[in-house]
Amino acid sequence: MKDPAGQNGSGRSSKRRRSPAESQRALVLAMMVLIVVILAAVATVIVYGMQVQKAPRTVGERTLATAEAAVRDAPDKAQSWLSLAYAYVEIGRYSAASDAIARGRKVEDLPDFYIVDAYRAEKAGNVEEAIQLYEVAKKKAIEYRKAQDAKAAEAGARLTGANEQLVSAALGKARLLVAQRDYKSAVVEYDIALEQDPMMADVLVERGAAKAKMGDLAGARADYEEALRYVPGMPEALDGLARLEAGDK
């Protein structure tokens, strides 16, 4: 006859209780599962952190990542190496920029590589070197344009438009000369740029300011007024004229 309380004749529960050893094993197993879960969570955080660190975080890093991808996809294109060189310069990796320039020149010896090389020196703080390199870039731009003109003539065509590389090199050099207060030499470079494109109002203003510093007030006024002819109401040109009226160079 069954015990009404669901107990056997001894008065003890029919459900077997765990031994101390079994309880200990269960506890150890639970701790091991917990440790595995914790380690998995830590690993996930570390991997995520590494991915975040590797991801481009600034405009410069994103530009570099894009340029590096372009070189990987099209290493035989000079423009890819040129973009990479500029990207390196912008984040201060000047040695890497020099390497990209050298490799790009092997693909195609463009004047643009000489310009970015000068820009590299400028950003690195080597002003005298940069001035010399901008001069080299100017010569390269002239030579390159002559070669292009010759090719066009052979095909019965004629190139028109400004020599943009010459403009860039001349302006780069002019601005460094202004920073060194060599206004006379700077005006010569501005002249070269404006011969290519006389309608650059911003460059006319820069040349006007350099002329004013030299004491050529009439020349400065003429440049400011010419800039206003191309861009009516241009604030920089109006400010230049106002300074001349006030006797402030």
Structure write-up:
With 249 residues, the chain is mainly α. Helix content is 75%, strand content 0%. The longest helix has 35 residues, at 20-54. The radius of gyration is 36 Å and the shape is elongated. The chain starts with 19 loop residues before the first helix and ends with a helix. 30% of the residues are buried. The model is unreliable at 1-14 (pLDDT under 50).
Question: Which helices and strands, and how do they pair?
Answer:
Layout: H1 20-54, H2 59-73, H3 78-90, H4 94-107, H5 111-123, H6 127-154, H7 164-179, H8 183-196, H9 201-214, H10 217-230, H11 235-245
Helix pairs in contact: 2-3, 3-4, 3-5, 4-5, 5-6, 5-7, 6-7, 7-8, 8-9, 9-10, 9-11, 10-11
Features:
11 helices; mainly alpha; disordered N terminus; 249 residues
Gross geometry: elongated
How many separate helices?
Answer: 11
- Total count of strands: 0
Q: What fraction of residues sit in β-strands?
A: under 5%
Please give the alpha-carbon distance between the first and last residues: 121 Å
pLDDT average, as an integer?
A: 87
- In the predicted model, the low-confidence regions spanning at least 5 consecutive residues are 1-14
Structural Rg? 36 Å
The largest β sheet comes out as: none
Tell me the helix content.
Answer: over 70%
| Order of SSEs | HHHHHHHHHHH
Tell me which oligomeric state these chains represent.
single chain
The secondary-structure class comes to mainly alpha
